[in-house]
Amino acid sequence: MSATVSTRRQILDRIRAATQSVAKAPDELAGAYTALPRSYVRRGGLTQQARLALLIERLREYDAEVVECGPDQLPAVIAAQLDESRKRIFVAPPGLPSTWLAPGFHWKIDHDLPAAEIEKAEGVVTAASCAIADSGTIVLHHSAGEGRRVLTLLPDWHLCILYASQVVETLPEYFSRCRRPPTLATYISGPSATADIEMTRIKGVHGPRFLHVILVDDLGAPTILN
Amino acid sequence: MRASLFITCYNDTLFPETGRAVVRLLERLGVQLDFHPQQTCCGQMHANTGFRTEAFCQAKRFVRLYQDRETVVVPSSSCVAMMRDQYPGLFEELGNEELRRQFTALLPRVYELSEFLIDRLGVDDVGAYFPHRVTYHASCHGVRALHLGDRPWRLMNRVRGMEQVALPNLDRCCGFGGTFSVKNAEVSSAMLAVKLQDVVSTGAEFCTALDNSCLMHLGGAMHRQYAGMKTIHLAEILAGTEAFPAEALA
Amino acid sequence: MSNAAQHHPVPDPHRPVLDPRYAQPFPKAVLPVLRNPQLRKNVAHAIDVIQAKRARLVTEKADWQQLRSAGAAIRSHLLENLAAYLEEFEARCTEAGGMVHWAADADEARRVILDILREENASEVIKIKTMTSAEIQLNPFLEAAGVHAYETDLAEIILQLGEDEPSHIVVPALHVNRSQVREIFARRMGLKDLSDDPHALTAAARTYLRQKFLTIPTAISGANFLVAETGSVVVVESEGNGRMCLTLPRTMITLAGIEKVLPRLQDLEVMLQVLARSATGERMNPYTSLWTGVTPGDGPQRFHVVLLDNGRSQMLARETERQTLRCIRCAACMNSCPVYRQTGGHAYGSVYPGPIGAILTPQLMRMHHAQTLPFASTLCGACYEVCPVKINIPEVLLELRSQVVNQERRQGARFFDPMYLGLRIANLIFSRAWLFHTAQFCGRIGLRFFTRGDGWIHSLPSIGGKWTQTRDLRGLPPQPFHAWWAERNRTGRQEAK
């Protein structure tokens, strides 16, 4: 706390005085919160297949490229994606599985790389924590396999490996899945964009312009053909 | 069916023909109408301009005059909105429990005209004839405060001989806003200019609505600009028949 | 007051004044805008685009109304229990390595921020767009103290380099078109051959900023939400400049109004669903960032939160005013407002324009300024219909109008004002039917003078002249309705015509 201790007291006192007729006592607060009406949709109603199809549709709507594969094909599909990108230098988080580091490319593993080094990378490969089909959102909690936030920000090209089991339909489902609230998270729903000039949508102001997603079927369901 | 007509202060003074049309229409439909001779105003103008104390006076007076009437019909959605949206707060603030009770009992018996026809009388075909091209402006209070929904169209669709043209942006505010029209006259005029463009673009002969406040504003500009269109309250359209055409044509 | 005078820069006559203490009254401030077809067109185009996108998504969202109800309930609950949730946020944030400061007003907030910057020896900062910093007029203050703040949001760069002011809280430069942007960038970035293609303009901004992001170690942000349960901050954006400012610098200062708190992380499931749809017509904005205090190795290692009161705590006592603070700054209200559509934001003389500005600005000023704003509305209700947290803006406008009138009455300021006189006389007239009828009679006689042969009035004096500026008024009919009714009853009921 800072030198604003007395201001803090003043402000809180003012707030308490103003809300004294409506504020709950400390032991009633949690109950009042739980009693708040929530009749919006919590759980989605789509089948697993439909949910994945919806996610793919949303991702493609904002020009992300999506390919699907089974778990065994993953390293080969990663290699193919990297190949198609015509890029050579990639940065990867330290926790990325080694089988994902396709040979024939220059890999910079992020052991506290300075920003200037990350700037030199042409692309980044990461895992993800979750994806929300309804809004086409990819969620990163920045674990060892997802990397520090700067890794998915500076390079222009991002390859994200997502498992079907990580996909939920609605945003409330994502929150109810989090056993503990994340302390760090980035929710990506499209490449960077601005509409500040005459409402013309321009992509890729800061942040990767190109997003590629590999959707790995780890649920044993028949894969959806492109 | 008996009903008491609350004509509203501005209709009484500026648009008596709307009142005459309401009488003709409702009596044709078998309604026994009465008219409280002491009526004046609901207080909306004062309340909306921030003169709450004065609005109280008029609200109290309205309740006292109408508390024993079976049904009250009002050919103005903004006045009914005043009663539904603002009277409860006013009476709460006044702290007069008896008046508040009287008002609470009275309120469900107050109807805007199209509500009275559709909900109370249960009719949408009122036997009207109006052989003209008409566009309908959905006044803000009617749409958002009273939630009139499709009532106006249910009535208009049964008017014989009438050709309806849809108004683009029909529920965009015309810019009248009561005293806003003079306190912020320039903005009001800018909104009016935009609205008038939409209205004139329909090629209709008449623009109609359920509120003469909007129509006074639109009609005033039409007249100033020789726009080749007129305004008419929906009551007057509904009152017109082959034998006795709507007064606006006279 | 002297502090304010010290930090108020010399007014540039061409620069819009968004300080409610010095701004023109709304009816006057709109005049140049209404005569500016380019600006009116730019504003209408921008809001039409957002409105159309929003409408599609709202229709698609089957539980939209339920989300609004939940949003309103969560925000109301938060405000009613604000003290407890602020303390919880402070405790969690501090545990996670953040430093929480409290600022009673704009002056204190500016000083706290400057003190932190001085500790950091910062002569430059990069900023994420935050209306709260504009509310406290932070940039000019820092400039005067030798710290240059670089805006990094594209719209804010346009405004900063163009020496202009925001006119909308989500799309602040919507009043500027591409050729105007081209002119600003060419001049200020030294790019003579720059085209006016939005792609080229955006690329120019990207280049202008890249080095700044990589080298300036101190950043200032706002917050869309503060989460009490975890002590986290949430920033919602589209461009990525936010993420740059949140991850690259060494020190981050987040300035947030005390009302930005949400009780639990889970509440984001409502807020994020309604915010993007309302603000930009998207199911979700491109980037939302959440961070909690300091994370070793990732992002700023020194993190400060400055909690700003600046008139907010004064608004909590009654539900009518308190609901104003539910606002999540989505701007749906101004996008739906037929008044804002014609005037744009500058005319409101505040960083918060439109319907929310009309109720928030005067209240933040404790009703000492911006008293014309509550009247800058026709009470059409379009704003209330779209507000994701169900702020009954017309209800608050009416309450504030009443407060302004009472204030003016107490000051005796307007005793002879034609509007005040007229309304007091009208009230007297409405108190008795015979007075009303007599007044009608006098009005008919009096207005005959102004009524032309066609039965219409084309010109009136005084307040009436404000009507007849652009509209005719039909002359008072010879027989008011009540007189027709009385005559009909006297002469016996005529056949229903």
Task: Give the helices and strands, then pairings.
The complex is a heterotrimer of chains A (226), B (250) and C (497).
Chain A: H1 5-19, H2 26-34, H3 48-61, E1 65-69, H4 74-85, E2 89-92, E3 106-109, H5 115-120, E4 123-127, E5 130-132, E6 137-140, E7 157-163, E8 167-168, H6 171-177, E9 184-188, E10 193-194, E11 202-203, E12 210-216
Parallel strand pairs in A: 1-12, 2-3, 2-4, 4-7, 5-8, 7-12
Antiparallel strand pairs in A: 5-6, 6-9, 10-11
Chain B: E1 2-5, H1 9-14, H2 16-28, E2 32-34, H3 44-48, H4 52-66, E3 72-74, H5 77-94, H6 97-106, E4 110-112, H7 113-120, E5 133-136, H8 140-145, H9 151-156, E6 163-165, H10 180-183, H11 185-201, E7 206-209, H12 212-224, E8 230-233, H13 234-239
Parallel strand pairs in B: 1-2, 1-3, 3-4, 5-6, 5-7, 7-8
Chain C: H1 2-7, H2 26-34, H3 37-60, H4 64-80, H5 82-95, E1 98-103, H6 106-119, E2 124-127, H7 131-135, H8 138-144, E3 148-151, H9 154-161, H10 178-189, H11 198-215, E4 218-221, E5 225-227, E6 232-237, H12 241-247, E7 251-257, E8 261-262, H13 268-279, E9 287-292, E10 302-308, H14 319-322, H15 332-336, H16 338-343, H17 354-364, H18 382-386, H19 393-410, H20 418-430, H21 433-448, E11 456-457, H22 462-468, E12 473-474, H23 481-490
Parallel strand pairs in C: 1-10, 2-3, 2-4, 4-7, 5-8, 7-10
Antiparallel strand pairs in C: 5-6, 6-9, 11-12
Please characterize this protein's 3D structure.
Chain A has about 230 residues and is an alpha/beta fold. Chain A has helices at about 5-20, 25-35, 50-60, 75-85, 115-120, 170-175; strands at about 65-70, 90, 105-110, 125, 130, 135-140, 155-165, 165-170, 185-190, 195, 200-205, 210-215. Chain A has 2 domains: about 5-35, no CATH class; about 50-215, Rossmann fold (3-Layer(aba) Sandwich), CATH 3.40.50.10420. In chain A, a hairpin with a 7-residue loop joins strand 10 and strand 11 (about 200-205). The model of chain B has no long low-confidence stretch (mean pLDDT about 95). Chain B is built from 13 helices and 8 strands. In chain B, strands 2-1-3-4 form a 4-stranded parallel sheet, with helices on both faces. A 4-stranded parallel sheet of chain B has the order 6-5-7-8. Chain B is α/β, with parallel strands linked by helices and about 250 residues long. Chain C is α/β, with parallel strands linked by helices and about 500 residues long. Chain C folds into 3 domains: about 1-80 and about 330-415, no CATH class; about 80-315, Rossmann fold; about 420-490, no CATH class. Chains A and C meet through helix 1, helix 2, helix 5, helix 6 and strand 9 of A and helix 3, helix 4, helix 5, strand 1 and helix 9 of C. Strand 9 (about 185-190) of chain A pairs antiparallel with strand 9 of chain C, so a sheet runs across the interface.
